[in-house]
Amino acid sequence: MPAETTPQRSELLLPRYRRDDASHPALNTPEYRSSALRYPKQPLQLLPQYLTEVTGPLLGHDRVAETDHDLTTGHEGEPLGERIIVSGRVLDSDGKPVPHTLIELWQANSAGRYRHAGDRHPAPLDPNFTGVGRAMSDEQGEYRFVTIKPGAYPWRNHDNAWRPAHLHFSLFGQAFTQRLITQMYFPGDPLFHQDPIFNSVRDPRARERMISRFDLDGTVPEWALSYKFDIVLRGSAATPFEDDEEDDD
Amino acid sequence: MADSAEVTTPSQTVGPFYALPDGLLWPDGPEVVPAGAPGAVVVRGTVLDGNGDPVPDAVIEIWHADERGRFSHPADPRGEPASFQGFGRCGTDPEGGFWFRTVKPGPLPTPDGRTEAPHLNVTVLARGMLNRLITRAYFPDEAAANEADPVLSEVSPQRRGTLVAVAEPDGVRFDIRLQGDAETVFFEL
């Protein structure tokens, strides 16, 4: 072992990300049938937040082209559907903006169909819509997409099951620990009550975090409606001494 | 104040339809280093469900230090940049297979003065998983370092093997069993 890999403690002060287990769904959620064979039955082992956990890929503008935030461009014509602006801030749970971070988005078209070989829903594909977008948050953590409102679609989880309209979001934050895949929903959707994926989040305040807000101020007259969606990632305490997890093994 | 923290946004499943053209799965996703890079190793594996069936719709991501144990990241106080961005992403094929080309990372110091053995942090995303799973892949030719690793040594001896990749001619194999016999050890973070 080379000596230089064993520095003094004081040289290696790492951030410490807060636990946020209360926000997240249980991996074993029987109402979501696909989870049955895909959740670990053994208890999870505690991973300390060492160097690999507090760092992460800082994927930048080289991954994002000028018009990637606009899912309505790049084809012969305009996609069908309700044009919407989806914008907001990426923050951490301490209220600090998460700047210059990659946000990936994917979604169904306005008829509820994905441009994906595995999607058998007999709704039309839209030749002018792929359903993929990327954006970077700015210095203040602000991001913005232009897209169309996706349709609800049926699936076979239970009798007459329908997914509420949603956008898939993927975020890297600034550390492996902050990585998040989530879904954004629309306010007042009548399909929430029967959706096991939405309802897998048990804390009502956390469920609320997944629902965007209609945003009259952000609308563009005669062009687009607007929804606000702030995304909150785990915050980091400045010093590594708080929130001792109990580790009972 | 720990209790004034805002509620975070919940995780939801990646679902079955992430593989859209030019979407999550970048063409160069599995290639952390280019072909022919010095010291390149191929990491291969298969993702299996609780029936032992392949999972053909998972996304595997890896994140790790470079060959000298460096990260290009402001949270790494050692301040020496890495030789590459140690991130890879690969969707599984119909047989549940995934692969990466990378180099074995160097060992890492911990804040309490110990040394972590070379490892890849691994994220598993899939339909049917409402939150990501996190695991680690260690290297089979690092027996002494693995023995002293502060994370691996906390895992019960009979399950430790699920975190150590198996040697192959051009690299290593790291299979991921989501559930059941020889279930991979997964971590909370």
From TrEMBL, chain A:
Cross-referenced PANTHER family: DIOXYGENASE, PUTATIVE (AFU_ORTHOLOGUE AFUA_2G02910)-RELATED, INTRADIOL RING-CLEAVAGE DIOXYGENASES DOMAIN-CONTAINING PROTEIN
Disordered, as annotated region: 1-30
Keywords: Dioxygenase, Oxidoreductase
Entry's family note: Belongs to the intradiol ring-cleavage dioxygenase family.
Gene3D superfamilies: Aromatic compound dioxygenase
GO molecular function: ferric iron binding; protocatechuate 3,4-dioxygenase activity
Enzyme class name: oxidoreductase
Start and end residues of each Intradiol ring-cleavage dioxygenases domain: 86-114
Protein name per the record: Protocatechuate 3,4-dioxygenase beta subunit
E.C. designation(s): 1.13.11.3
Top-level taxon of the source organism: Bacteria
Biological processes, Gene Ontology terms: 3,4-dihydroxybenzoate catabolic process
Xref: Pfam families: Dioxygenase_C, PCDO_beta_N
NCBIfam families attached to this UniProt entry: protocat_beta (TIGR02422)
UniProtKB/TrEMBL annotation, chain B:
EC number: 1.13.11.3
Sample GO molecular function, one term: protocatechuate 3,4-dioxygenase activity
Coiled coil: none
Family matches, as InterPro entries: Intradiol_dOase_C (IPR000627), Intradiol_dOase_core (IPR015889), Intradiol_RC_Dioxygenase (IPR050770), Protocat_dOase_a (IPR012786)
The Intradiol ring-cleavage dioxygenases domain, residue ranges: 43-71
Root EC class: oxidoreductase
Keywords in alphabetical order: Dioxygenase, Oxidoreductase
Residue spans crossing the bilayer: none
Family that this chain belongs to: Belongs to the intradiol ring-cleavage dioxygenase family.
Name assigned to this protein: Protocatechuate 3,4-dioxygenase alpha subunit
Organism from which the protein derives: Saccharopolyspora gloriosae
